[in-house]
């Protein structure tokens, strides 16, 4: 991940790779005309896949315990977050936030490791998008 300049670049390159693999698996007669641009759906699918890979590398023990239906040990660093695996197979924050009437993304945020290259790229993207604000 660290070889890429931005999160957008990572997502676009991987989306093109996923499209290539998807089209290669189709029979020649089923292939449609190749689109020149990536769709938002392709980019979103890639983003979820990248988040899932990052989480599985950072928290393999948590995924294993939750998938087996077991509780995290009380001393585990993620235990206070009451993590669960959402419909998109991403590790999300649980707890009383489920009672809110908001979208899943704001109600149950995705859990990422603080040292992940993905987190650094995401922070950089938000920093640039918001006009390079300094400390408040």
Ordered list of secondary-structure elements with their pairings:
Elements: H1 7-25, H2 40-58, H3 60-67, E1 84-85, E2 91-92, H4 104-107, H5 117-129
Antiparallel strand pairs: 1-2
Helix pairs in contact: 1-2
Task: Provide the descriptors you would attach to this structure in a database record.
136 residues; mainly alpha; two-stranded antiparallel sheet; 5 helices; 2 strands; globular
What is the C-alpha radius of gyration, as a whole number of Å? 18 Å
Shape: globular
Mean pLDDT: 86
Portion in helices: 40-55%
Strand order of the largest sheet: 1-2
Beta-strand level of the residues, as a percent range?
under 5%
Gap between N and C termini, in Å? 30 Å
Got a strand count?
2
- What profile does the largest beta sheet have? 2 strands, antiparallel
* H-E string: HHHEEHH
Which class do the helix and strand fractions yield?
A: mainly alpha
Q: Are there runs of 5+ residues with pLDDT below 50, and where?
A: none
What is this structure, in a nutshell?
With 136 residues, the protein is mostly helical.
Question: Please, could you describe this protein's structure?
Answer:
Helices cover 46% and strands 3% of the residues. By secondary structure, it is mainly α. A two-stranded antiparallel sheet has the order 1-2. The longest helix has 19 residues, at 7-25.
